[in-house]
Amino acid sequence: MDILAQVITSFIATGAFGILFNAPKNTLVKCGLIGAGGWLVYYLVEGYYDDPVLGTLLATVFIAVLSQELAKLYKTPVIIFSVAGIIPLVPGGLAYNAMRNFVEENYNTALGSAAQVLMLAGTIAFGLVFSEVINQVIRKINERKLKI
Amino acid sequence: MNNEAERTYEIMEVCLLAGKIMLQSGGETYRVEDTMMRMAASFGIEKSHSYVTPTGIIFSAEGSEPTKTKLIRISERSTDLEKVAIVNSISRKISSGDLNSREAMKQLKEIEAKDLSFPFRMQVAAASLASGCFMIMFKGEWNDFLPSMIAGGAGYLSFVYFHRFVPIKFFSEFLAAFVIGLLSLLFVIIGVGHQLDKIIIGSVMPLVPGLLVTNAIRDLMAGHLVSGLSKGAEAFLTAFAIGAGIAVILKFL
């Protein structure tokens, strides 16, 4: 039940972000589906291993690879699909905690949260790099298939 | 000879306009450069160089005559992915030879003048829906759904209005975050809202610089160090402005 609520809310949230970014109308549902899929990956992995870093990494790779394939299929730029999906993975809650602790002068707790925020932001970056590599490998394999 | 020079300038105009629209609408730097060079190549300029930063485009075309270079300054940037997609498809048509430079210029000018964005009411509705949903995704309770929807929608609305009033992006983000914090605090004090933290986190999400962050990383990866770093700096400033706006409210707690 909980998972169902998460999937539905993440679908609506990423689709709504598509509207804010003014994505073409016929891609809005696909944006939402990618976002929901990415969030489901994050939610399950994070819940199972209790590790947001691993969850963020896998979800980012999932979103980026899928959007690349969709972009090839529909001949549109990749960012249209990937951008809205990545947004839920941004560690907004942790950043908020860090800032709140800074304001309340609990500097030790604040620094801990800030370090986690940096870790997660770096993970998103690394996930994007990683998926770029995967895409290149897929392209190479396809080219080789064509040659044979 | 003269004719050829004129033709080169015409092609450069088309390429620069396409690049300008793409960059202003939030396209990645490498895509802008790539599109401009491809368009130039399919119009017959084999060797061209483009240098794109978030604030300007330099494009030069080599030919039999001396190399020509033009510069375009970009001052306004927004997010409009549909325009990126349309320019992309125009460039595809040019590459396949379906469009000549005159036609392409006409179509690009039409797109530049058009406002393709969703109606403003719909954007605010989307922002408030997204806020409510994000609140649930960040492990909030359903009884906070309506408060965070209202706070998020009001935050986005005030961001757009402040931005029209004072065209300094970071200041309007600061004010919008302040409005969100104030509303959330009010809701909790009245008793409509329950968890202040969750409401604020959810409502702030529509302001988060997600596109900038992903584009910054993509640019850095593709070797566009200047654009990547400057987009990263813009994203950081935005995040800082949002944080500062909320921090003012938290100081009152």
Description:
The complex is a heterodimer of chains A (148) and B (253). Chain A has 148 residues and is mainly α. The model of chain A has no long low-confidence stretch (mean pLDDT 87). Chain A has one domain (2-147). In chain A, helix 1 packs across helix 2 (28-49), helix 2 packs across helix 4 and helix 3 (52-74) runs parallel beside helix 6. The radius of gyration of chain A is 17 Å and the shape is globular. In chain A, 84% of the residues lie in helices and 0% in strands. The relative contact order of chain A is 0.12. Chain A is built from six helices and no strands. Chain B is mostly helical. Chain B folds into two domains: 2-113, no CATH class; 120-251, no CATH class. Chain B is built from ten helices and three strands. Chain B has helices at 2-24, 29-42, 81-95, 101-113, 120-137, 145-165, 169-190, 196-204, 210-221, 225-251; strands at 47-53, 56-62, 68-73. In chain B, helix 1 runs parallel beside helix 4 (101-113), helix 3 (81-95) packs antiparallel against helix 4 and helix 5 crosses helix 6 (145-165). The longest helix of chain B has 27 residues, at 225-251. The mean pLDDT of chain B is 87. Classes of the chains: A mainly alpha (148), B mainly alpha (253). Chains A and B meet through helix 1, helix 4, helix 5 and helix 6 of A and helix 3, helix 5, helix 8, helix 9 and helix 10 of B. Chain B: This is Threonine/serine exporter family protein. Chain B: One of its GO terms (cellular component) is plasma membrane. Chain B: Residues 14-252 form the Threonine/serine exporter-like N-terminal domain. Chain B: Keywords: Cell membrane, Membrane, Transmembrane, Transmembrane helix. Chain B: The chain crosses the membrane at residues 145-162, 174-193, 199-217, 229-250. Chain A: Its main location: membrane.
